[in-house]
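Let us work through a complete example step by step.
Step 1: write down the sequence.
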Amino acid sequence: MRRAFTLIELLISITILSILMIALYKAYDALNISNDIYKDKSKSIKSVELKKRTIYLDFALSFKGSFKQLDQDTKKDIVTFQSSNSIHKRYNPYITYLVKNQKLYRVESLQKVSEYPFISDIIADVDELGEVKKFKVFKSKEQVSYLIDARFKDENNILLKVKVLNEI
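Step 2: predict the structure and record it as C-alpha cells.
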C-alpha cells in the first residue's frame, strides 16, 4: 500500500493556501495605503514646521530699528528688515515678506529694500511660502517683539510671538 495525498486533500490545501494569500495581499495593500496617508501628513507637518522656523528665525534675529512696514490692505502687510538669519548663505541680508496674488513671498537680498514695487537692479532670492488669506505683523513700540499672523489657505495657520534676540 502506498501512502500519498488524495486529490481532495490537495484541493483543500490549495484552497486554504489561496485564502491565506488573498488575506495577506489585502493586509499588505491596506498597509501601503496607510503608509501613503502618513507620508503625506508628515510631509505637510514638515512643511509647516519649516515655514514656522524660517519666519521665527528671521524676526528673532532681526536688528532693532531696521523694521519697516508698508500696509497693503487690512489683511496683508509688506515688511522689510535686516536679519542675521539667511537661508541663502548671505551675511546679514535684508528680508522682505510680501503678499502678491494671494501668495506669501520671502525675499532675501543684500540691498536694502525701501519701496515696493522693487527697483529693478535688486538682486535677490525669492521663496514662495504658500497661498495666504491673511499676513499681518504687529510690532511693539520698542521693536523688541513681534506678533506674526499668517493664515494659509490650506488651514496651516501660523501665529507666532517673537522676541528680538539681536541687541544691535
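Step 3: interpret the result. The first helix runs from residue 7 to 60.
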